[in-house]
Amino acid sequence: MNWAIIPTTQWGKDRKWYDKKRPKELAAVLHNLKRYLDLLHSRPNSLSVSVGFMHTEQAGVIAIDQSGGGKNLQETRLYIYADDTTRKVYLITIGNKQEQHDDVQMSRIFAEEVKKAVEDKD
Amino acid sequence: MTAKRKKNKSTIPIDRPYASVEELMLGEGISKEVRQEVALISQESRLSHLLTKMRHRADMTQSEMAKALKVSQGTISKIENSLDADLDFGIICKYALETNQRISLNIGKPLNHVEAVKHHAGAMREHLLELAKLANEHEDDENMEQEIHSFFGETLLNVLQIVGSCANELPRGREFEIRMRIEEEKKADRPNTQELPDPVRV
Predict the structure, then answer these.
(1) CB–CB contact B81 A38 (8 Å)
(2) Is B200 exposed, middle or buried (0-12, 13-18, 19+ CB in 10 A)?
(3) In this predicted model, what pLDDT tens digit does every residue of B75-94 receive, in sequence order?
(4) B-chain residues within 8 Å CB-CB of A106?
(5) What pLDDT was estimated at residue B28?
(6) pLDDT for B171
(7) Residues of chain B with pLDDT under 50
């Protein structure tokens, strides 16, 4: 079964903001998301992917950064959660360094909710 | 100065699954500018991404690759995140050796479709001739000769199937011709070309 990308409401708002104000940063994180997914398709699970542009946060949340997208880009993180059971990659939010703390907290809560929903279904 | 923006404290999944980032960008209305930029970065970092994939296929972590190449983990991260134009040729060779995999490089203007098909056909011809040579050199080895003969038959069938199935994708109502030439080796070692009277119509 292939992995599916699932956007969320906050990601939708963030991507609109970044598209308008920081298009290069948005392109950089989307490019890295593309690379991450390509690796994910060939691996048994999300934990076996390790690349320089991804950072592991709490509750299995992964932050994908803008590296490789060019010089002088603002530090940007795309927060995702890859659920191995349902093979879904949730796009949680996009933020900068200043927003990192709040973004990580929100992403953690989201990932825990997804995990709980999957467990309850089982 | 970064513009301040309001963010929610929670987020809800949207029931719009996408199979790829390209689909996501189109489906979610991401601007053409961003889509083009993603395509450009992807094009300019194909080789570095290939190196990352090779390392994963070999089940190696960045630290293990760093150890094997006698560099720091940071260097590996930098290599795999760099643009192809900034890659060192020696590094590419080392990745191929350490992962026991092969890299084929085509540098410069990409082949168009017709050129690519001809290129692959030429390569196939070269390899088949080498196999024929091998069969001749090992005429006493019946097994090998038989296997090579079978492989020739299999290849012919596969090529016909590939061309046939792709031909089904052509606009209907048209035919294309296959003109076959049979070359006979004469005693004088000069090929004599005998053309079939009627072309086969598909």
Answers:
(1) no
(2) exposed
(3) 999 999 999 999 999 999 99
(4) 7-11
(5) 96
(6) 82
(7) 1, 186-187, 192-193, 196, 200, 202
Separation CA B130–CA B119 (nearest Å): 17
Cβ of B53 and A110 within 8 Å?
no
Q: Which residues contact residue A71 at a Cβ distance below 8 angstroms, ignoring those fewer than 6 apart?
A: none
CA torsion through residues A51, A85, B14, A43, sign: positive
Q: How far from each other are the two terminal CA atoms of chain B, in whole angstroms?
A: 66
Distance from the B142 Cα atom to the nearest Cα atom in chain A, whole angstroms: 40
**Tokens 């012919």 -> residue:** B156
- Mean pLDDT taken over chain A: 94
Contacts with A51 from chain B: Cβ below 8 Å:
52, 62, 77, 80
Identify the pLDDT of residue B196: 47
The whole-angstrom separation of Cα A24 and Cα A78 is 13
Of B13, B33, B81, the CB nearest to A53: B81
How many contacts does A have with B, using Cβ atoms within 8 A?
Answer: 135
**Model confidence pTM above 0.80:** no
CB pair distance less than 8 Å for A68 and B41: yes
- Report the complex ipTM: 0.94
Question: What are the structure tokens assigned to A81, written together?
Answer: 């959660």
Give the Cα separation of B4 and B108 in Å (integer). 44
Q: What angle do CA B103, B107, B112 make, to 5 degrees?
A: 105
Q: What distance in Å separates residue A95's CA from the closest CA in chain B?
A: 10
A26 to chain B nearest CA, in Å?
7
- Please tell me whether residue A69 adopts helix, strand or coil conformation: coil
